[in-house]
Amino acid sequence: MMARQLTFHNEFLKFVQRKAHSVYNFEKAVVLKAFEHLYQLELIKPMEGLSVRTQKEYRLMKLLLDNSQILEALQKYPNCPTDVRQWAMSSLS
């Protein structure tokens, strides 16, 4: 089975269409800036063994947080959008 490599922005759009009850209307540049910020904070990193020549928005990424860290972040951020909170909780189970 081939792994689909979609851009971070496309993944965000799929999340919004599938899960979001509220309207998230962010331009592509804003979404990509948020992605860059996650990378700079070292919360994500490119998967090893993939071509360095691949455009960064097409690289497969790995989340560097474990489940307990995500749960802790959700507890510390009570204003987290409900859609994001539900997505995180469903991903952890």
TrEMBL record:
InterPro entries named among the record's database cross-references: ORC4, ORC4_C
Highest taxon in the source lineage: Eukaryota
Main location: nucleus
Residues covered by the Origin recognition complex subunit 4 C-terminal domain: 9-74
Family annotation (Pfam families): ORC4_C
Keywords in alphabetical order: DNA replication, DNA-binding, Nucleus
Compartment(s) where it occurs, according to its Swiss-Prot or TrEMBL record: Nucleus
Entry GO MF terms: DNA replication origin binding
GO biological process: DNA replication initiation
Gene Ontology cellular-component terms listed: nuclear origin of replication recognition complex
Protein's name in the database: Origin recognition complex subunit 4
Organism, as annotated: Aquarana catesbeiana
